[in-house]
């Protein structure tokens, strides 16, 4: 049998640093390097636009979370990494840094570090994982593997998947859970209530709201509303496929909300005492006012 060619350069995984997750990452404290899939605060204002992101001195930020018009669209860090490599070289000797290990972080950093070839299928997978919720084997494997926080494990099982080989047992369990979650979303789709621009589900905690999106092609806004562990209610809000293009959730000043243009949730220390329907009323009112103004 011919020798199997590795689809991943495992020798370059060590070039990726997994740092701790922080609410704010400043240019002054992070040091030099290429920072993938997490926002370096203020780099869009202090630095310059480059292909794939922003640059300030020896800090490059390849990330779709910047609060700018440029990033307020269906874009992820992996397609930005492809854009970056269409103009610049793979990061030879430069630090490549991520702070979490979901599909977009693994794929974007892998491409920048030279672990992965810069292929369009990885961009498609990142968009599915971040935005559309569409079924995609690469995204559906890597998203649940994020909980392991183990880049070597993620890349090793990604290669098994790409080669059509059996996954390691723990990876297969995580992959199966993702498939089960998708089936759960399909089964719950009929339990949503349409209320103006909002489709809401009340009483059930479900963090991966993007998995509902394929079942609501005409929805503008999805709201998940459920009791908090201590007091009050938690909310998760997501723009749907039919949302007006100019709409930014983080410009609506929603109560107890933190997030970005297309997704967010309850702030960590603040919960809402509104019911799901009351919160949907607030969303409808604020969206109408935003679009009129």
- What are the segments in which pLDDT stays under 50 over at least 5 consecutive residues? none
What proportion of the residues form beta strands (DSSP E)? 15-25%
Ends distance? 67 Å
Spatial strand arrangement across the major sheet: 1-6-2-5-4-3
Give a quick set of tags describing it.
globular; alpha/beta; 293 residues; 2 domains
Molecular structure report:
The longest helix is centred in the middle third of the chain and has 20 residues, at 169-188. The chain has two domains: 10-181, no CATH class; 192-292, Diaminopimelate Epimerase, Chain A, domain 1, CATH 3.10.310. It starts with 15 loop residues before the first strand and ends with a helix. The mean pLDDT is 94. The chain contains nine helices and twelve strands. A six-stranded mixed β-sheet has the order 1-6-2-5-4-3. A six-stranded mixed β-sheet has the order 7-8-9-10-12-11, covered by helices on one side. Strand 3 and strand 4 (53-56) form a beta hairpin. It is globular and about 55 Å long. It has 293 residues and is an alpha/beta fold. Helix 3 packs parallel to helix 4, helix 5 (120-132) crosses helix 6 and helix 6 crosses helix 8 (169-188).
